[in-house]
Write a structure and sequence with these properties.
The complex is a heterodimer of chains A (220) and B (96). In chain A, 33% of the residues lie in helices and 29% in strands. With 220 residues, chain A is an alpha+beta fold. Chain A folds into two domains: 112 residues, no CATH class; 90 residues, Ribosomal protein S10 (Alpha-Beta Plaits, 2-Layer Sandwich). By secondary structure, chain B is mainly α. The chains are: A alpha+beta (220), B mainly alpha (96).
């Protein structure tokens, strides 16, 4: 794909939204990283909040690895400088006016969420055990997972236990952690790793995808 | 020409072993299809494949082959559900 050089106002009016941030009325740019066409990622301000968007001719993006990665990379980049409310993948609005009207309708909820998420990030933990060990633990694996979850939860502001999508998974959880407590949280993860020497996938910081429950209209 | 099939015979209360066996095979086949092309289950398998690759238990080559296979199955499974291919119309009423 080549970088966009010019803009067609007719086909590029649709706005693909990555996240919402607290911002002044001043528009900002985050480079040419737009999903699908490497168009500019920029802000559309509305009363002290801003939607981070790129122009796109499409309304429907397939949830391919490449597209999801592009979406997440923008949200993660913006997160380095701002508190973000990440949008679900695939939110494209017909035009700026439709997007602004949605921001207006969700304004109070967005402001509350931004205050709640201020200076916090999401960290993800997946604990994988060998098949034999999982069988050996039997019913006890639930207690063991719960013990680990509770010990990590103490270092977080909020936590979510997600679906165990594999028989090898002991724990699949996300934690909302204050930025200045990430080290403390990581130490706790190290302690868990020492217990049964499981394989731990410790990821983040992520935009807090699992801790925002604002529903805003998408598509047209 | 009037063809008597297993549905008609069963309605008449007549059980013929070969027909019953065929019906049983059909049931097993349908069940196997549902299991193999169940979209939520395939989505979980896609995630598991990714996870095993990321923690170093699966090579990139294996990961890609399995991923492509699972995504193909997922597409088929979603299409089958959309087209209700797993349901057969019973002309005597209802959806089987």
């Amino acid at each position: 794909m080549s970088k966009k050089t010019g803009k067609d106002p007719v086909i590029e009016e649709r706005k693909y939204v990555y996240c919402i941030i607290a911002n002044t009325e001043k528009p900002a740019s985050f480079g040419n990283k737009g999903i699908g066409n490497f168009s500019e990622v920029y802000t559309i301000p509305y009363k002290g909040i801003s939607a981070v968007v790129s122009d796109t001719p499409l309304t429907d993006y397939q949830s391919t690895e490449e597209n999801i990665k592009a979406h997440n990379e923008v949200a993660t980049l913006v997160m380095k400088e701002h508190t973000v409310i990440p949008m679900a993948f695939g939110m494209a609005f017909k035009d700026k006016e439709v997007l602004l009207s949605v921001l207006e309708k969700s304004y109070d909820a967005i402001k509350k969420s931004l205050a709640l998420l201020d200076n916090k990030v999401e960290l993800g933990i997946k604990i994988v055990l060998g098949k034999e060990l999982m069988e050996l633990l039997g019913e006890k694996k639930i207690q063991f997972a719960s013990y680990i979850f509770e010990s990590l939860k103490k270092k977080a502001v909020e936590s979510v236990n997600a679906k165990l999508f594999s028989e090898r998974l002991l724990l699949n959880a996300s934690f909302l952690v204050e930025k200045n407590k990430i080290k403390e949280f990581s130490k706790e993860v190290d302690e868990v790793e020492k217990m049964l020497a499981p394989k731990i996938q410790y990821t983040g910081p992520w935009p807090p995808y699992n801790f925002v429950k604002i529903k805003i209209g998408g598509g047209e | 020409m009037f063809i008597i099939d297993d549905i008609v015979l069963r309605l008449l209360g007549i059980s013929i072993l070969p027909f019953d066996t065929i019906a049983l095979f059909k049931l097993i086949r349908d069940f196997a299809y549902k299991e193999a092309y169940d979209p939520p289950k395939i989505k979980d398998m896609i995630k598991e494949n990714r996870l095993l690759f990321e923690i170093g238990e699966r090579t990139e080559e294996d990961y890609k082959i399995i991923d492509a296979d699972l995504r193909e199955k997922l597409e088929l499974g979603v299409k089958a559900r959309e087209m209700k291919l797993d349901q057969r119309m019973d002309i005597l009423g209802g959806v089987a």
